[in-house]
Amino acid sequence: MLVDSHCHLDFPELAGRFDQVLGEMSANDVGHALCVCVSLDGFERVLALAGRDPRLSASVGVHPDQHDTREPDVATLVRLASHPTVVAIGETGLDYYRTTGDTEWQRERFRVHVRAARQAGKPLIVHTRAAAADTLRLMREEGAAAAGGVMHCFTEDWDTARAALDLGFHLSFSGIVTFRNAAALREVAARVPDDRLLIETDAPYLAPVPFRGKTNEPAFVRFVAACLAELRQQSPEQIAQTTTENFFRLFKHARRIINA
Known about the structure:
Number of strands: 8
CATH superfamily: Metal-dependent hydrolases
Helix content: 25-40%
């Protein structure tokens, strides 16, 4: 069984064919998918979708790209995270790639999420782009290690990977690792300890080879697993077992369907 540790099934590209997406998951032995929230306004939509199938779970959080949006506070995040379908806090973090000017609002929002995760006792889903140093600094300052979590869609260098691992975090690899220009990332993926490895799609984005440029979906996570198997000189079955066990150990509130 495979697990897609990060996708956005509520996005328009996938929500309109939800039943088909679930069918393709089954056909490709994807037994669970984590539907990740990016705004408070969208939380109820994410929660409703995740509630339609026991193979799905949800998170609650506000993405760092969401500027003009309802700002989260610790109490609100903790309250929403108490729902049994919610297994994580996030997607949160820092993204300086598209942001200009003062970015303190991003850092404060990230701190709020870390504090909420510690209080709720649920792990963090961390996004970082062009902001690795600040992301790690805030994680240390706010005690993110106490919550644990995952650096999702990891694309950074080994020094960043090692720092995140030292904080007890997992690293999740997406379809980017299959891209022709991702040689440096593949070197990092080959070095991650078995017990910290996760796989994801970030659907509907970042479809792996051979579907690059098309709409991504959880079924395609098997191509990420196959790539990692080759890089790590393991079988695809080993990668599936390892990443699935890691997922349910980290996201301990996720429902595991026997023989899924």
